[in-house]
Amino acid sequence: MIADSSDVGFLLLNGLNVLGVSTEFKDSGLERHTVERTYLGSTLRRKLLNGVSSCEIEQTGDFDDAAGSSHDAFKAPGSDKVLSWCLAGNTIGKHFSGALVDQLAYVPAAQADEFTTAAAKYTCSEREDGLIIADLVARGAAGNTEATYVDSSASSTLGGVGYLQLSALTLDGYDDLVVKVRHSPDHAAWADLLTFTARTAIGAERKTIATDPIEQYLSVSWSWTGAGAGPSATFTVGFARN
């Protein structure tokens, strides 16, 4: 899948914006590996899934050294970074992708009389596709998205994965921010489904849940621990059912 920046709702790595001034994004998708076997009494070879999957992602674009942008995100390649992206727009209910990635490379390339470009490459140790259940916007006082819930058409029974990307945070006296995924069978009675780790700084988290069932309707709530005045947080939450 290839997209340019005009199509992307967001592209975040550990809470940092890596969309860049101009970005090309290549996503190989999740590939399930096979092995070939020939069985006694048969002249045909069969390909069987071996339980191994892989996914590679590459992005290239103009070098961006603005604070909290792509250079800050890429300058220290490493393992278990959380990458989240949305190619269909920053809107609740839109398709969402998230991955736990190993950043393999970061290559800025300067050329005379040209913009400096940069490229990053990742491999995914985990990868999910789901829906945005909280769009990437700034939020203040404690609240929820129950009025703009996501209807998943049916409940499910195999667990799921939630992704939080927190790109800005002002505590202003409060101790931390707590973000939760909630579910409901009727979009009236809500219960907590998944609670992300309390946040005191920008960042991201991928969290699995084995709850059975996960109800049909999903929303997000957020609250502040302690006491203060005028807090704010900019975050998005995506959720994928297994």
List the helices and strands and how they pair.
Layout lengths: L1 E2 L6 E4 L2 E2 L5 E5 L3 E8 L6 E10 L1 E7 L7 H5 L6 E6 L8 E15 L7 E23 L3 E2 L5 E2 L8 E11 L5 E9 L6 E5 L7 E7 L7 E9 L6 E10 L1
Antiparallel strand pairs: 1-4, 2-3, 2-8, 4-7, 5-6, 7-10, 8-9, 9-10, 10-18, 11-17, 12-17, 13-16, 13-18, 14-15, 14-17
- From the alpha carbons, calculate the radius of gyration and give it in angstroms: 20 Å
CATH level-1 class of the largest domain:
Mainly Beta
CATH topology of the largest domain: Elongation Factor Tu (Ef-tu), domain 3
- What is the CATH architecture assignment of the largest domain? Beta Barrel
Distance between the termini: 22 Å
Instruction: Name the average pLDDT.
Output: 87
Could you give a short account of the major beta sheet? Answer: 11 strands, antiparallel
Care to count the β-strands?
18
Please, could you describe this protein's structure?
There is one protein chain. The chain is built from 1 helix and 18 strands. It has 242 residues and is mainly beta. It has 2 domains: 126 residues, Elongation Factor Tu (Ef-tu), domain 3 (Beta Barrel); 109 residues, Jelly Rolls. Strands 1, 2, 3, 4, 7, 8, 9, 10, 13, 16 and 18 form an 11-stranded antiparallel beta sheet that branches. Strand 2 and strand 3 form a beta hairpin. The radius of gyration is 20 Å and the shape is flat. The chain starts with a strand and ends with a strand. The model has no long low-confidence stretch (mean pLDDT 87).
